[in-house]
Amino acid sequence: MLTLTGITKTYGDRRALDDVSFGIERGRLTGFVGANGAGKTTTMRILLGLLVPDGGTVEQDGMVVGADQRRRFGYMPEERGLYPKMKVAEQIEYLGRLRGMGKRSAASATAELLERLGLSERAGDLVEKLSLGNQQRAQIAAALVHDPDVLVLDEPFSGLDPLAVDSVAGVLSDAAARGASVLFSSHQLELVERLCQDIVVIAGGTIRASGSADALRDQNAGSRFELLVRQDLEWLSAVDGVRILQARPGWALFEASPETAQRVLERAIGSGVVSFAPHRPSLTEVFREVVQ
Which spans of this chain does the record mark as coiled coil (predicted)? Predict the structure, then answer.
């Protein structure tokens, strides 16, 4: 497990990170979400050793991470980072060789990744001739070519079409299935919710929530309930202790104590109950709750 503990970073009078602590487990996809300027990229760069924190530690299995461990890390920055005048396959093989791979294994891994990412036909093209989406896929291949133990990606899905998103998601899921610790940031919360087992939410340089996606949704569910009936629900707003959050004909999402919700259900039986259940929030709802 990769663990960040008490990470702080200050630029002049501005504290970019304040006591940032969370873990990234092996074999799992962890989504790192937050608004622009929240501290995601700074955190990732400290994790990778590209920035030195003012305080705190980065550990892997209880040992402080150093240069030897980071040779087994893979990183994809949000900015374009490949050599534009090199051919795609040549570039990725070269980066694999820099990571200690033999020529044959680097070439084999490159060919496999380009096939999976839909770039085989562009293997001989110069990087600068690729579309932005294809450059993004090439950068992901470069981060993965040496089969890293830890994979850190900054907005890997930015600019990708739906088919490319699916192929990249499959490659990242397979990396986790092989035992890698995978952390990626994204503003596409629906995609994070679909792919990730764990979520870390950062705002203003502090961690607002972290843990398994299911646990975070349960923790932020509160006393919210969904009710669907065959008739109208105009009477619901008059029930003491009920706060309606959303409503449309025959359906409502409301807050209430369990006891009040039971009374609502009893009343709704006469209106032809179709469904009644506690409401589990989406990741978007969780994000809004914890950053407010």
Answer: none
Looking at 60-69, 85-94, 215-224, which range is the least confident one? Answer: 215-224
Residue 34 main-chain phi, psi, to 5 deg: 175, 160
Residue pair 227/263 in contact by the 8 Å Cβ criterion: no
Model confidence over 146-158: pLDDT tens digits?
A: 999 999 999 999 8
Contacts of residues 97-102 at CB distance under 8 Å and 24 or more positions apart, as own/partner, are 99/71, 99/145, 99/146, 100/71, 100/146, 101/145, 101/146
Residues in the chain: 292
What does DSSP say about strands 2-11 and 251-255: parallel, antiparallel, or unpaired?
Answer: unpaired
Q: Of 158, 222, 199, 225, which Cα lies nearest the Cα of 287?
A: 199
The structure's pTM equals 0.82
Largest CA distance in the chain: 74
What is the bridge-based pairing of β-strands 224-229 and 251-255? antiparallel
247 forms beta bridges with 252
Instruction: Indicate whether 219 pLDDT > 80.
Output: no
- Indicate if the alpha-carbon torsion angle 221, 224, 229, 231 is positive or negative: negative
Distance (Å, whole) CA 48 – CA 46: 5
**For the stretch 259-291, what's the b/e string if a residue is b when 16 or more beta carbons lie within 10 angstroms of its beta carbon?**
ebbeebeebbeebebeebeebebebebbbebbb
Domains parsed from the chain with CATH numbers: 2-218 (3.40.50.300), 221-282 (3.30.70)
